[in-house]
Amino acid sequence: ILLVGSNTAWCHPVIWQRIEKARAERGARLVVIDPRRTETAERADLHIAVDPDGDVALFNALLAEMHRRGAVDEAFMADHCTVPEDFWAALGNAQHGVSPATFAQFANLVAAHPHMITLFSMGVNQSVSGTDKGNAIINLHLAMGRINRPGMGPFSITGQPNAMGGREVGGLANTLACHLGFSEAERADVAWFWKTDRLSPAPGLKAVDLFKAVHDGRIKFLWVMATNPAVSMPDAGFVREALARCPTVVVSDVIADTDTARFAHIRLPALAWGEKDGTVTNSERRISRQRAIFDAPGEARADWRIMRNVAALLGHGAAFDYPDAASVFREYAAMTALSRKHRKMLDLTRWANCTTLRYDAMEPFQWGGQRPLQAGFPTSDGRARMVSVMPAPDRAGGEAFPLRLNTGRYRDQWHTMTRTGLSPKLSAHRREPLLEVHPADSAQYGLVDGGLARVTTPHGTATFRVTATPAQARGQAFVPMHWTDAMGSAGRTGRLAQGLVDPHSGQPGFKDTPARIEAITPQWRAFLLSRDPVTPADQHYWVRSRVEGGWLTELAGEGEPDLAGLLLQGQLGEVVDPARGMARQVVLDGAGVLQAALFITRTGELPPRDWVARQLGLAAGNVAELLAGRPATPLPDKGPQVCV
Question: Which domains does the chain possess?
Answer without folding.
Answer: 2-148 (3.40.228.10), 163-366 (3.40.50.740), 403-520 (2.40.40.20), 528-628 (no CATH)
